[in-house]
Amino acid sequence: MSIELNDVALGTTVVGAPAPRGSALGADAFKGVFRRHPAGVAVITTVVDGQPVGFTATSVISVSADPPLLAFSVDSASSAWRALASAETLVVNFLSAAQVEVSARFATSGIDRFATTDWFTLPTGEPVLVGSAAWVRGEVLQRTPVGRSFLVSVLARESDVPTDVPSGPLVYHDRSYHGIGDHSVL
Amino acid sequence: MSIELNDVALGTTVVGAPAPRGSALGADAFKGVFRRHPAGVAVITTVVDGQPVGFTATSVISVSADPPLLAFSVDSASSAWRALASAETLVVNFLSAAQVEVSARFATSGIDRFATTDWFTLPTGEPVLVGSAAWVRGEVLQRTPVGRSFLVSVLARESDVPTDVPSGPLVYHDRSYHGIGDHSVL
B180 and which of A101, A151, B175, B184 could share a cystine (Cβ 3.0–4.6 Å)? Predict the structure, then answer.
């Protein structure tokens, strides 16, 4: 898939969007801004052809609670997209501060990401990572093209917040992992 | 605008999305999951009919660096949407840990949010909040309906990372504000 900058407005839901004109911000400057923007870390899991697949994402957001909708972005050139292009359901595993290695593993290519990670399979077939601070299972509703990426929207069907996970959530910021809790309250 | 749950898949970019069936997750359970998901805090600003407008958002994500695209969600019933339904450009102000009051003010209805906040106007017309850790100005490319909300996609045009902001970024988690830095590195 190759899309040039002039084609970034690919969606058919464009409402009053101006045609791109002038120069866009350089990639390095853009990355420099988002290095100042911390994010919770999740691993998104699903099953493709009977095999568990998963990848680390720092772009999961709540869209609305009623209906219960979330969204995240995924690069169309990534291996994650090859799974998500067809997946009908998925699980978002919200990582805990004790899962730095899990975050790194599910962002590494060429390994069996599930080999050394504790996980179980839901009755509906999707893998869930043990030790996550919370997880939610949902149905993919929309895959909206934006530039070379897709915004994937998900309707939540079920969830769990395990009571045996002592650590707080995992935060990624400026290429480092952080833990938040009483020590970080302002 | 009133949309029932059965109509959540409103977008015209639906690709292979299943029809919603079965029961969706309850709003309280959904909120309980996302309370475990920390997020950086931003204030999105623009100008409507010559007046500055802005609102607090914890849903800003990077979509891709090349092209430089970001996105966020906004409730179609919010005052923010009334501004964003027509805005062609906007600024995302990434708040610093010193801006807890700014975050609260831009989430409060019925006040002049800009009255006690230091800000300046870009040559292109949009307001920028002084003291933010970084800001980026961009053009609205797409407004994608998802349930009762919209995913707004933005092409970045310019940015700044001020060197005189000493504190780190502002994080929102479980209804509290957090600061991250050396004290929170894992």
Answer: B184
pLDDT in tens, A84-105: 999 999 999 999 999 999 999 9
What stretch of H or E contains A92?
A: strand A89-94
pTM given for the model: 0.89
Q: Residue A180: which of B113, B27, B39 has the closest Cα?
A: B39
**Alpha-carbon distance B68 to nearest alpha carbon in chain A (angstroms):** 6
**Set of chain B residues whose Cβ sits within 8 Å of the Cβ of A76:** none
Determine how β-strand A127-129 pairs with β-strand A119-121. Answer: antiparallel
Given a contact cutoff of 8 angstroms between Cβ atoms, the answer to whether A179 and B175 are in contact is no
CA–CA min distance B157, chain A (Å): 5
Q: Which residue out of A144, A154, A157 would a mutagenesis test of the B interface target, given it has the greatest number of B Cβ atoms within 10 Å?
A: A144
Enumerate residues 6+ apart whose C-beta is below 8 A from A32.
Answer: B134, B159, B161
- Which residues lie below 8 Å from residue A128, measured CB to CB, with a gap of 6+? A45, A91, A93, A119, A120, A121, A122, A135
Measured between beta carbons, the chain B residues lying within 8 angstroms of A156 are: 24-25, 30, 33
**Which residue of A58, A90, A103, A186 to mutate against B (max B Cβ within 10 Å)?**
A186
**H or E segment at A170?**
strand A170-173
What are the angstrom distances between the C-alpha of A25 and each of A7, B60, B62?
A: 16, 17, 13
CB contact under 8 A, B141 and A8: yes
In B, which residues are within 8 Å of A157 by CB distance?
Answer: 22-25
The partner residue sitting opposite A33, judged by closest CB among B141, B155, B161, is B161
User: Which residues in chain A have their CB less than 8 angstroms from residue B82's CB?
Assistant: none
Chain A residues whose CB is inside 8 A of the B138 CB are 25
**pLDDT tens across B112-170, in order?**
999 999 999 999 999 999 999 999 999 999 999 999 999 999 999 999 999 988 889 99
